[in-house]
Amino acid sequence: MSPLNSLVLILYSFSLFFLLAVARKEFVVESSDEEPQHYHTLKLSSFLPSSMCNPSTKGDKKRGSLEVVHKHGPCSKFSKDMLTVEEIQTQDQSRVDSLRARLTINTGKHNTLDSKTTLPAKSGITIGSGNYFVTVGLGTPKKDLSLVFDTGSDLTWTQCEPCEVSCYSQQEPIFAPSMSTTYTNISCTSTECSWLTSATGYLPSCVSSTCAYAIQYGDRSFSLGYFGKDKLTITSEDTINDFYFGCGQDNEGLFRGVAGLLGLGQDKLSLLSQAASKHGKVFSYCLPSQSSSVGYLTLGNDGTASNAKYTPFSTVGNSLYGLELLAMYVAGTKLTISPTVFKTSGMIIDSGTVITRLPPTAYSALRDKFREGMSEYPLTNPLDIFDTCYDLSNFQTIRFPKIGVLWGGNTYVDVPASGTFYVNGISQVCLAFTSNGDDSNIGIWGNTQQKTQVIVYDVGARKIGFASGGCA
Ligand SMILES: *[C@@H]1O[C@H](CO)[C@@H](O)[C@H](O)[C@H]1NC(C)=O
């Protein structure tokens, strides 16, 4: 049996898929500047999801940037169906579990780790909940590939011909390394091959002197194959000649038509690190408020987020992005939450988790204060992970309290209006935050709460910036 096949066997034993649909409900919001500072006021009609893609929104086509599109909705070429709340919850949960596993050492403690050498193998993260994709070009001549972008992992991979073991079906033609004049297999003895251990959590193996990688994610989906390099075309003016990536010969799981994954973690093999000599260790993105518009992903600092407010990274271990949460606000009032609550839990920001997870103590304080500010609206049934939902069928506009966050370095940032609610129809509009099971679980700042902001990951300076109004 070839080494690749034994690897396949090992991973087969994990290959239990949760075949869940990944559609998502969306909502639209408009903010009015004339309203009192501590409240947002929106027309209810803006909550109704749009069924048409409107790519020419405020974000414009930014030069030198990649378009960021939601995998589910009118702008997606993969699925026009939006996610249900149950689907979001199931996917978020497996992602949250595996992010936690990445931060956990054998004793079950997390979050004060700063040395990679003390960490166990990473278990990876769920791709199914990655949700946003970009389209890049690979090889010569270049082939377009749509990849989920993910701040929670490092290795970029795509399915590759001849799909020795298995490829799932994808929208674009599968990348054929033999047809690219610039593709090279990486040898087992190269330094880059050894970097796979930290980037994937698995030791690389050797298949007739070609370095082979394996990576597995939280929902048991996985990719394995040859480690190669080729020319990566980000935009027509922006290419990386020797871009290291996984050329997947066995790819299984809930990837839903995308060609693979783009890793934006902090590890040496992430796109961020591989583009660093050209762009510095900086990238930024803006996630659109609804799946009927598009956002963008920019490598390097293009200066457009000059109004960004920065908070220093906190060390959470591994290549994940840690943030320090100091306090939370509702309608300008600071919630009475002991700072030790946030200190104990810690927090990461993640592009793939949909709904922000807070320590239970913090969540209940947030919810209670938010309900006070919403007392004129009738509460209705809870919805899955959401316990604070309103029936707004009898209203034309809604005025709701702003939620604010004080990040480390005393950086105050408002949660965007579009990051406040999950709208399951006008008769069930829910506060889009949820509680962790335990105050000791790490918090996760999810992508719903990041919508419309430019989030700048200045990895070189170890800080993260938030700028409002980056895209529609
Ligand atoms: C890469 O290496 C594998 C294993 O040795 C081999 O089967 C494959 O043909 C090589 N691919 C290319 C494009 O050289």
UniProtKB/TrEMBL annotation:
Q: Where is the Peptidase A1 domain?
A: 132-467
Give the signal peptide range.
1-23
Kindly list the biological process annotations in GO that this record carries: proteolysis
In terms of superkingdom, the source organism counts as Eukaryota
Q: Does the keyword Hydrolase apply?
A: yes
Which SUPFAM superfamilies does the UniProt record give?
Acid proteases
Q: Check the record and name the InterPro entries matching this protein.
A: Aspartic_peptidase_A1, PEPTIDASE_A1, Peptidase_aspartic_dom_sf, TAXi_C, TAXi_N
Q: Which principal EC class is assigned to this enzyme? A: hydrolase
Does the record's keyword annotation contain Cytoplasm?
Answer: no
Keywords, sorted A to Z: Aspartyl protease, Disulfide bond, Hydrolase, Protease, Signal
Q: Which Pfam families match?
A: TAXi_C, TAXi_N
Question: What GO molecular function annotations does the UniProt record carry, in alphabetical order?
Answer: aspartic-type endopeptidase activity
- What is annotated as the active site? 150, 350
Q: What is its EC number?
A: 3.4.23.12
Its family remark reads: Belongs to the peptidase A1 family.
Q: Which PANTHER family match?
A: ASPARTYL PROTEASE AED1, ASPARTYL PROTEASES
Protein name, UniProt field: Nepenthesin
Q: Which organism is it from?
A: Helianthus annuus
